[in-house]
Design the sequence.
């Protein structure tokens, strides 16, 4: 098994061509001096992927050198789950946060699922435990529990069905009930209630990136560009922020919206790495980005991915009794489908 970083001068012609292809979409967002540092990692990761029969699935928030440089498949949380379900590879490296890797493992119990950093968590996932869900169930018996995928497998195991931001509305509607317990994202829950008319019992979990946006900030951006800006926001933002937006959707939904409307200027009210990644596909749109970075997503790095594949770490394991129940909630969600904004 190759374990060394490959000096660029000793690459074969086809390996060089692959590196050039990887760099091509990033030319405008990643200076070549930075690419020179990343390229040996990209070359080594490509080699390890072949040797391990591995695939890298990356979230839209990953930095450009991962998103464009080494990812085989990219998307929002729901797309990542479907991609994990479809892949034939034996090893799945998740360039995202821990709950995404757990979801991939739930879907693919027979595959080796790796995450390059065990510290890539999520403020939402950390806000609630399985014991909390059991207490809520005692308090509100016969009320279905809908759980955002940004949770641990233990929490999913206590839930009736999962959702992501791209299908939350459809998942709640699919239950055909007047009231649900919606966990743990308070703001996404409020958004879903506003779109469905279903009563929601909420938890006070928040995304540490999206909760920082304010309506004032959005209004200042609009004023700075004389209103000539399309504002697209993620539903993890507070309701007052969503009220200022022209469109609300998951990260995948926001990207599709840019593609459909091709506005001259857009403000993406979400984690800021995504704007750079997406901008390469829309050269006629100016991306204005308020720079809120997710520290958890940023714990995934190219050297970390390289070491992950080299040393086969860190492998995701879920106790079978938890996995079995959590998978039921994830499978129910996948059966509902992608959702309108998805
Ligand atoms: P989506 O990509 O599913 O919209 O989720 C955003 C998110 O919170 C990822 O951490
Ligand atoms: Fe969690 Fe927010 Fe980071 Fe997504 S952006 S991983 S929801 S903390």
Sequence:
């Amino acid at each position: 098994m190759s374990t060394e970083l490959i000096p660029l001068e000793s690459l074969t012609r086809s390996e060089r061509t692959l590196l050039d292809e990887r760099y091509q979409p990033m030319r405008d967002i990643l200076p070549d001096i930075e690419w020179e540092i990343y390229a040996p990692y990209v070359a080594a990761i490509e080699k390890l992927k072949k040797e391990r029969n591995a695939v890298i699935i990356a979230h839209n928030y990953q930095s450009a050198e991962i998103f464009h440089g080494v990812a085989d498949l990219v998307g929002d949380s729901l797309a990542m789950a479907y991609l994990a379900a479809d892949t034939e590879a034996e090893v799945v490296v998740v360039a995202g946060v821990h709950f995404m890797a757990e979801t991939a493992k739930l879907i693919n119990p027979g595959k080796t699922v790796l995450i390059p950093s065990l510290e890539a968590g999520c403020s939402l996932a950390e806000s609630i435990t399985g014991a909390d869900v059991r207490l809520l169930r005692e308090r509100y018996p016969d009320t279905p529990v809908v759980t955002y995928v940004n949770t641990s497998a233990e929490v999913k195991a206590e839930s009736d069905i999962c959702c992501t931001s791209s299908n939350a509305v459809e998942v709640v509607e699919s239950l055909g009930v007047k009231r649900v317990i919606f966990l743990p994202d308070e703001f996404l829950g409020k958004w879903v209630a506003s779109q469905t008319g279903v009563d929601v019992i909420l938890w006070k979990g928040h995304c540490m990136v999206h909760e920082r946006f304010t309506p004032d900030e959005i209004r200042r951006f609009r004023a700075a560009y004389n209103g000539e800006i399309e504002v697209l926001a993620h539903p993890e933002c507070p309701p007052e922020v969503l009220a200022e937006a022209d469109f609300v959707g998951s990260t995948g939904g926001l990207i599709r919206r840019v593609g459909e409307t091709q506005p001259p200027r857009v403000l993406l009210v979400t984690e800021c790495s995504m704007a750079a990644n997406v901008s390469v596909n829309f050269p006629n749109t100016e991306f204005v980005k308020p720079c809120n970075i997710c520290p958890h997503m940023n714990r995934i790095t190219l050297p970390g991915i390289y070491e992950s594949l080299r040393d086969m770490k860190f492998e995701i394991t879920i106790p079978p009794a938890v996995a079995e129940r959590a998978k039921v909630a994830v499978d129910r969600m996948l059966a509902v489908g992608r959702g309108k904004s998805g």
Observations:
- The chain has three domains: 8-121+297-311, 125-207, 210-288.
- The chain is about 45% helix and 15% strand.
- The mean pLDDT is 95.
